[in-house]
Amino acid sequence: MYENKLWKTEYLIFDGSHCQEAFRTTILEPFSLKKDDDAKLKSFGDSVPYIEKALEFYFAEVNKEWEPSLSTTNSTDAQLPREIYRFKLTWLFKRIFRLRSLLLALFHSVFIFAKWNWGLLFRVLYLGGIFFIMVMQDFQNIVDAWMKMEHKKQFLSTIINEQDIGAKGWDKVAKRMNRYLFEQKAWRNEEYFFDGIDCQRFFERNFVSLLSCKNSISFKSLDVELWPYIRQVQSSCSDGHLV
Questions:
Q1: How far apart are CA 83 and CA 177, in angstroms?
Q2: Total structural domains in the chain?
Q3: Which of 12, 15, 213, 221 is buried deepest, with most CB atoms within 10 A?
Q4: Is 174 contained in some domain?
Q5: 108-to-63, 112, 117, 123, 128 alpha-carbon distances in Å
Q6: How far apart are the first and last CA of the chain?
Q7: How many whole angstroms separate alpha carbon 202 and alpha carbon 210?
Q8: How far apart are the C-alpha atoms of 8 and 18, rounded to whole Å?
Q9: 193 close to 171: Cβ distance less than 8 angstroms
Q10: pTM for this structure?
Q11: Where is the chain membrane-spanning (predicted)?
């Protein structure tokens, strides 16, 4: 890029991960979203054969790395939050009103109400904003944005390898993932999913929805590498598994 005077220095790309992300956002995602050869040719012109060759190599490497650690995740003694708390509302309140959250809320309450020169409306809005941020931190499992690629692979692989039919299948997936995410220190406890229904909705909201995207999303990766495995899960569901 520097030699061809397309960039002013030799440091356009910071490291390998930055290079991969640039490849995904500028080549992989836009190319994969094109529905047919004509659309690809219109957007990428004579580069299409080279892109197809690069993607063939890239996906071959992705498939080689598809080795989730199912054997290390033992969930036979695990309990779902549904079995512990019975009601989801109880579980929700427990997550919101943790000791750390209460201390933070107390600190901000003292701070904001000490500012008597601030209007009442501003103080109420400030506390509301702080409370909203705290709740969103406690409910990051609503979205998968924080998940690393290996966690997403593990999630899909766990579903694919679950052969039970019915709600019990999703319950088992939820138990295994709760244990896995805790063991990987990706979540603070074994209560990431409340139950199988929560787990299934998470899959539909954060994975199945990717297959219907028509444009790249600036704030979220489309995880094109996972599309074949998402379709495989859908196929398993349609065949009678995990429904």
A1: 16
A2: 2
A3: 221
A4: no
A5: 49, 6, 16, 10, 11
A6: 51
A7: 12
A8: 18
A9: no
A10: 0.73
A11: 96-114, 120-139
Most confident segment among 101-115, 124-138, 145-159? 145-159
For the ranges 122-131, 174-183, 196-205, the lowest mean pLDDT is seen at 122-131
User: Is residue 33, in this structure, part of any structural domain at all?
Assistant: yes
Q: 82, 110, 141 — which closes off a domain?
A: 141
Q: Are 209 and 18 in contact (CB under 8 A)?
A: no
Structure tokens at 3: 């030699």
- String of DSSP letters for 120-147: HHHHHHHHHHHHHHHHHHHTGGGSSTT-
Closest listed residue to residue 198, CA positions, set 179, 175, 221, 220: 175
Report how far residue 180's alpha carbon sits from residue 72's, in angstroms, rounded to the nearest whole number.
8
Place 171 in a pLDDT band, splitting at 50, 70 and 90: very high
Q: How far is Cα 82 from Cα 69, in angstroms, rounded to an integer?
A: 26
Provide mean pLDDT across the span 123-134.
69
Per-position DSSP letters for 26-79, written without gaps between them: IIIHHHHH--SHHHHHHHHGGGHHHHHHHHHHHHHHHHHT----GGG---TT--
Among 109, 124, 141, which residue terminates a domain? 141
Nearest to 29 by CA among 218, 179, 159, 168: 218
Largest CA distance in the chain: 67
| pLDDT value of residue 21 | 85
Domain extent, residue 51, equals 16-64
Give the up-direction half-sphere exposure of residue 31: CA atoms within 13 A in the CB hemisphere: 20
Residue 43 belongs to a domain: yes
